[in-house]
Design goal:
globular, 7-stranded antiparallel β-sheet, Thrombin, subunit H, mainly beta
Length: 235
């Protein structure tokens, strides 16, 4: 699997609102992962809470037709004594509604393989990449007058530093250009972090939940939280 394909699976967190006048809303960023035959869409719980949305209102497009969306069967919340880690949300794509022939078209890491997980502090890490959808990007918007939904992603690499945070299982990570010029980081929550090792292996390394404007660092939930969340759900 190429890193470009994996990054392209990261989507804007588009949701149905239930409001007849304003039926859709962008709430952040989301991305897929797998656990054996099950596929999950991952994001941050505060993205939904801030917009008064339910995670099952998420509209993640099917690979065959971007105008159709997956249905979900289960909702899983992060579990950890650290309240920051409770922000991890996983919604399972329904196996009854969508056969494996459809979900297999999604480019996603299978986190049941422990070799697909690594912390950004791993000495084998040579680069870290992230893709997300800042609200301020000019082509990332819902135009109700023209009945048009557009999205524009921002991809960043060339990370400068990474370090453990004061929150258990969370990390700080700093990129050379963490966000587009003159645009704030709102909307990047829910973005996945992928790391590359010395021989090009791709690893899941966490999910963004905050941006510190003073230090220019992102705060991310580390990869072990999602791994354990899905492991427990698939026992």
């Amino acid at each position: 699997m190429a890193i470009e394909d994996l990054l392209n699976s990261t989507m804007p967190l588009l949701c149905e609102t239930g409001d007849e006048e304003w039926p859709y809303a962008f709430a952040g960023t989301c991305f897929p992962v797998k656990w054996k035959r099950n596929t999950y869409i991952i994001s941050a719980g505060h993205c939904y809470k801030n917009h008064e949305l339910n995670p099952t209102q998420t509209l993640y497009p099917t690979p065959e037709d971007k105008r159709t969306y997956f249905g979900f069967s289960d909702l899983i919340h992060g579990t950890n004594q650290n309240t920051k880690c409770l922000d991890q949300i996983a919604i399972q794509i329904s196996n009854k509604l969508h056969p494996s022939s459809q979900t297999n078209l999604i480019h996603a890491l299978d986190l049941s393989n422990i070799n697909c997980i690594a912390n950004t502090t791993d000495p084998e890490t040579v680069d870290v990449l992230m893709r997300g959808y800042p609200f301020g990007n000019p082509l990332h918007k819902i135009d109700y007058e023209l009945s048009n939904i557009k999205s524009q992603a921002y991809v960043t690499d060339s990370y400068i530093s990474t370090r453990p945070s004061n929150f258990n299982e969370c990390i700080y990570i700093k990129f050379d250009k963490p966000k587009p010029n003159n645009i704030d980081a709102n909307g990047m929550s829910g973005s996945p972090i992928y790391s590359l090792d010395k021989i090009g292996n791709i690893k899941y390394s966490g999910m963004i939940i905050e941006f510190n404007t003073l230090t220019g660092e992102y705060l991310a939930i580390g990869p072990n939280i999602l791994y354990e969340l899905l492991r427990q759900a698939n026992i």
